[in-house]
Structure formats: C-alpha cells, structure tokens
C-alpha cells in the first residue's frame, strides 16, 4: 500500500481507447484515473473515454477532448509574451533542409558511413544545406 499523498505533486489527465461492446468498457483508463486520484494526484482535465462504436470512431470523443485539453494546458502554462500559437492549418518552416548528393557510386551505397542514412538495405547519401 502506498501513502495517499504519494503523487500530490502530479497533475494529470487520462484518455482511454475502448469499445463499448466490451463488458468492461475502458477499464484500464478508468482504473488508472481512479488510482491516480487515490494516490493524491490532481486531475487538471476530465477523463476522456474513446469508443470504437461511436459514429466517428474513438476520434468522436478524442477530438473534442483534445480541444479542451489544450485549453486546460494553456491555462496552466500560458504562452510566453511575444509568442503565438500557430493555426491548425499552418505548416511551420522546416528546421533543416536536405539535398541528395552524388557519390559517383552506381550501386547507391556510400563508402563513408557518416555521410549516409540507412534505410532498409540501401544507403542514401545526404548533405545538409
């Protein structure tokens, strides 16, 4: 048995994936949620119980749950001044740019392991710009 305040410094939220056709729907998620509370952890956002039987699958619960989760996280950890949240439909600039370089080898392998990226049985040479 553990002390009831063991997780007093923990804030949590749980989302479970399940199927309501099963007798113990989302049992693991519900049990984890209950146990975290018993050990003194603090729930900062409600439990979410995804159901494969939902008309939209588990996403029918996951999508709205995630919207609320982000709001709850922002309330706990606000965005620093001068920064903004990117819109869902935006694509951030890549941190790295790569280009394929020729090594002169016809087999597609490189003699230098440090200048190639392994993918399956082939090695592809690369260089960062």
Automatic annotation (TrEMBL):
<feature type="compositionally biased region" description="Low complexity">
    <location>
        <begin position="102"/>
        <end position="118"/>
    </location>
</feature>
<dbReference type="InterPro" id="IPR001094">
    <property type="entry name" value="Flavdoxin-like"/>
</dbReference>
<protein>
    <recommendedName>
        <fullName>Flavodoxin-like domain-containing protein</fullName>
    </recommendedName>
</protein>
<dbReference type="GO" id="GO:0050660">
    <property type="term" value="F:flavin adenine dinucleotide binding"/>
</dbReference>
<dbReference type="Pfam" id="PF00258">
    <property type="entry name" value="Flavodoxin_1"/>
</dbReference>
<dbReference type="GO" id="GO:0010181">
    <property type="term" value="F:FMN binding"/>
</dbReference>
<keyword id="KW-0285">Flavoprotein</keyword>
<feature type="region of interest" description="Disordered">
    <location>
        <begin position="100"/>
        <end position="121"/>
    </location>
</feature>
<dbReference type="GO" id="GO:0016491">
    <property type="term" value="F:oxidoreductase activity"/>
</dbReference>
<dbReference type="InterPro" id="IPR008254">
    <property type="entry name" value="Flavodoxin/NO_synth"/>
</dbReference>
<feature type="domain" description="Flavodoxin-like">
    <location>
        <begin position="1"/>
        <end position="70"/>
    </location>
</feature>
<dbReference type="GO" id="GO:0005829">
    <property type="term" value="C:cytosol"/>
</dbReference>
<dbReference type="InterPro" id="IPR029039">
    <property type="entry name" value="Flavoprotein-like_sf"/>
</dbReference>
